[in-house]
Amino acid sequence: MPRGDKSKYTDKQERKAEHIEEGYETRGAGKKEAESRAWATVNKDDGGGRKPGGSGRGKTTGRPAAKKGGKAGAKASASRSAAAKSASAKKAATTRKRRGR
Fold first, then answer.
1. Is 47 domain-assigned?
2. Which residues contact 29 (CB under 8 A, 6 or more apart)?
3. Torsion angle in degrees (nearest 10) through CA of 68, 60, 15, 52
4. CB distance 53 to 10 below 8 Å
5. Which domain does 51 fall in, by range?
6. What's the rounded Cα separation, in Å, for the pair 37 and 32?
7. Which distant-in-sequence residues (6+ apart) come within 8 Å of 42 by Cβ?
8. How many CB atoms lie within 10 A of CB 20?
9. What is the pTM for the complete model shown?
10. Number of domains in the chain
11. Collapsing DSSP states into helix, strand and coil, what is residue 40?
């Protein structure tokens, strides 16, 4: 199978990559870079293609990349005071207003 061949991926994995790619493009990555990152993320989550004939079919994926962010963020957010959260929100609102978003 040549490099870049996507024939072993399931429809769900392809949809997942497409959705991740859109997210990267929204955040400013170029088309090719976004596609590359999206497939890398799918591979990290699922261990590559899963169609019949591929090794490891049916195994659980463990801890996918998409689920890792919440723990660190929640802990940091919980330890901040209400005043600090409010100040941060006001600063963000000012920045959005200044940039016209």
1. yes
2. 37
3. 150
4. no
5. 11-55+63-99
6. 9
7. 9, 13, 16, 17, 20
8. 21
9. 0.57
10. 1
11. helix
